[in-house]
């Protein structure tokens, strides 16, 4: 990096400028995770698949009737959960190889770009989810989820290039906050479109389909900003391997997996994150389904609640970023898992059609959601050996937003067995308990030192 000499060190300014550019990808991809995966896709897929299963169009129908998927008879009400679970299983095979490829590349931002644009293309295919034709939508949401995870491998790896250890928590928190703001703004537009569809000359389902399409366009267009403003950097710490690029990537991945035993604290955090993040993602994903099918709220209440969560989470992410600078990211993460335990238990007892209590629960979710997600990303970056960010963040991203496996699988199974979403939502407490148990076994100072990184003043 070239800096001016004799005048001052401009590297902090240059890093901050790149961090601002980097934040725009949080803004871009949050549209997919918020508008599509969190709010509209689940209930709409249940409606479309429900028609094929013979459930009808009633919003009160929890739709336990089945559709055939590759010879399996799955409840239409559980289909979105199973699709998300399948996307994560696919990601478990794809993302680690992508991570090794990213680590060997000097063009991380272009890996981010092409995965993002391909994901946006498949997201746009959700526009054709209509009538009782659910199959194309099922394929599109799985592929776009996997591609979104691939783009995040490069995105998270870039954070290490553009920030010091002391800057990570604040940089990550600003990114999450920016993402919540962007996702919230698009949700506001979609709220107007869906709820005011008659005034716009649209039927309701067309408004939903246009909203799904808008998320794809938003994702693709705003990805241009970080691609234009970020700088590519040479790969560091590349493991010598022979063969072609893909063969060398597999070789580096195998070397990394065998060397993980030398970083027990990193592995401990990854296991903790796998559990508590699966719980977080499933709560976020299932919120609209739970509110629509179990608490019987209409789309206007659900979208308004999720919109409120987005804007409250904007402040929550920034607040947790400041708290981490004072008390350390590790302690804030541990307390955050305790907060999630309280939330899922309380959610089970929410009365039907009680808007006030539903919104109170939404505020609680928003406050802890932003902080735990932002600090997880920055804290994990401190536990990664330099030059292996892509591979480690690939493992991290296998359990990231929209790609939960165990949580969505458990949520779908409990619903299918009980016919109610109440036991399904409270069953998620097991993930937060297990996450807290592994966090308590973690020595953060030892983990950062073992990875060869500088231990921040407050950890």
UniProtKB/TrEMBL annotation:
Membrane topology: Multi-pass membrane protein
Organism per entry: Nocardioides eburneus
Domain of life the protein comes from: Bacteria
UniProt entry keywords in alphabetical sequence: Membrane, Transmembrane, Transmembrane helix, Transport
Residue stretches spanning the membrane: 24-46, 82-102, 114-130, 136-159, 171-194, 206-227, 267-289, 301-320, 332-350, 356-380, 392-415, 421-440
InterPro entries, per the entry: Atg22-like (IPR024671), ATG22/LtaA_families (IPR050495), MFS_trans_sf (IPR036259)
Name of the protein this chain belongs to: MFS transporter
tRNA-binding listed as a keyword: no
Subcellular location: Endomembrane system
Matching Pfam families: ATG22
């Amino acid at each position: 990096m070239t800096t001016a000499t004799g005048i001052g060190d401009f590297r902090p300014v240059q890093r901050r400028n790149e961090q601002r550019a980097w934040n725009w990808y949080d803004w871009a991809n949050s549209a997919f995770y918020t508008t599509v995966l969190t709010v509209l896709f689940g209930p709409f897929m249940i409606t479309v698949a429900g028609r094929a299963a013979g459930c009808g169009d009633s919003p009160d129908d929890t739709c336990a009737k089945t559709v055939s998927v590759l010879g399996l008879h799955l409840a239409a009400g559980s289909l979105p959960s199973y699709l998300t679970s399948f996307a994560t299983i696919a990601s478990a095979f794809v993302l680690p190889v992508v991570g090794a490829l990213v680590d060997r590349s000097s063009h991380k931002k272009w890996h981010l770009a092409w995965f993002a644009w391909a994901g946006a293309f498949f997201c746009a295919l959700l526009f054709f989810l209509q009538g009782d034709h659910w199959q194309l939508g099922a394929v599109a949401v799985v592929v776009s989820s996997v591609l979104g995870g691939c783009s995040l491998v490069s995105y998270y790896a870039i954070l290490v290039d553009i920030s010091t250890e002391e800057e990570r928590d604040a940089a990550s928190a600003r990114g999450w906050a920016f993402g919540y703001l962007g996702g919230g703004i698009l949700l506001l537009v979609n709220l107007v479109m869906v709820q005011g569809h008659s005034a716009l000359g649209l039927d309701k389902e067309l408004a939903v389909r246009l909203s799904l399409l808008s998320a794809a366009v938003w994702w693709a267009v705003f990805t241009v900003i970080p691609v234009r403003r970020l700088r590519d950097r040479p790969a560091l710490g590349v493991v010598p391997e022979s063969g072609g690029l893909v063969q060398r990537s597999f070789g580096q991945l195998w070397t990394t997996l065998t060397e993980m035993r030398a970083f027990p604290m990193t592995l401990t955090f990854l296991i903790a994150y796998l559990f508590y993040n699966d719980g977080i993602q499933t709560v976020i994903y299932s919120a609209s389904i739970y509110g629509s099918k179990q608490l019987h709220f209409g789309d206007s209440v659900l979208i308004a609640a999720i919109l409120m969560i987005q804007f409250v989470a904007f402040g929550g992410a920034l607040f947790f970023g400041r708290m981490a600078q004072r008390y350390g990211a590790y302690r804030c993460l541990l307390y955050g898992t305790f907060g999630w335990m309280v939330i899922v238990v309380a959610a089970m007892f929410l009365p039907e059609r009680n808007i006030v209590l539903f919104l109170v629960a939404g505020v609680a979710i928003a406050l802890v959601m932003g902080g735990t997600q932002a600090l997880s990303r920055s804290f994990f970056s401190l536990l990664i050996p330099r030059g292996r960010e892509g591979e480690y963040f690939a493992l991290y991203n296998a359990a990231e937003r929209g790609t939960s496996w165990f949580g969505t699988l458990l949520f779908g199974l409990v619903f299918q067995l009980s016919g109610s979403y109440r036991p399904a939502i409270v069953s998620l407490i097991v993930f937060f308990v297990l996450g807290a148990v592994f966090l308590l076994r973690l020595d953060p100072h030892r983990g950062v030192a073992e990875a060869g990184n500088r231990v921040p003043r407050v950890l």
